[in-house]
Amino acid sequence: MDSFVASQILSGLAFASAVTSMQCRERRTILLWLVVAAILSAGHFFLLGRNSAGTLYLILCVRVMVATHSTDQRYILVFGAAIVAGSLATYENPLDILALIASLVATYAAFQSNPRRMRIVYMCCAALWMVHNVLAGSPVAVAMEVSLLISNGIGFWRYYLRAAPA
Asked: ∠ CA(103), CA(105), CA(141), 5° rounding?
């Protein structure tokens, strides 16, 4: 099996984990599913030779694990610095700047105590990663981000916008 096919399989598994996360109601459960998705996405990007994005996803994995236990806003600065350092250390081309921005947005989202705000910011993050993945040439990762936006939107509607039954 070549590395592209293997990367797309990992991306497909990350896809399933990420979509599952957005159908959960509890913040911690959402984040735990995102840990699984981050590990798989990191492997996917490393197999594609996108080392900067892979490194950022490893940092994101640790960040999401910490966020399952804390919403302390100071972690935004800690993980923001780690993301910038990881990005600088692995910078290869301008596409890596988009991965950096998406990672910083996701970091802000992860440490929101309000699940509603967290979902909104994660929708912005998914849009950024979608553009990145189009430019990186990963069709399964693009489909994952599109589905994540849709799934998150459905979850948002189910939990926050749908009228309560009378």
From this structure: 50
